[in-house]
Design a protein that fits this description.
Length: 117
């Protein structure tokens, strides 16, 4: 299987023919780009308006829902605050009781030491 050998003239003719084809194609492309194609954008504009209307509705709903706090969440919050206040009060009273017990212990130890002497 050997390769076919072509004549230089044949190769030149084929190249010229391909160049002419490319020139014709380039001219067709230039002519096609010069023409403006009218596009009807009214459906797109209608869809865009519908989209913006829907989005504004969602934004309005989101603002309305931000103002509302469920009652159960409010009850939980109040319960937690009351528990915190109760815990703080218990800590304060325990601290006072501990201070009283420390003073009593100190006085008892002093009395005990006086009795040993």
């Amino acid at each position: 299987m050997g390769k076919e050998r072509h004549n230089v003239n044949t190769i030149a003719e084929i190249l010229l023919q391909k160049l002419n084809d490319l020139d014709r194609l380039a001219k067709r492309i230039e002519e096609a780009t010069k023409k403006s194609v009218p596009i009807d954008t009214t459906p797109l504009l209608e869809v865009q308006e519908e989209q913006s209307r829907i989005l504004s509705g969602f934004q309005r709903l989101a603002k309305e829902q931000d103002k509302y706090i469920p009652k159960s969440l409010l009850y939980v919050f109040i319960t937690l605050v009351l528990m915190l206040v109760g815990s703080l009060f218990m800590n304060y009273t325990q601290r006072n009781e501990i201070n009283v017990l420390k003073q009593w212990k100190q006085s008892v130890t002093e009395q005990h030491q006086k009795q040993k002497r």
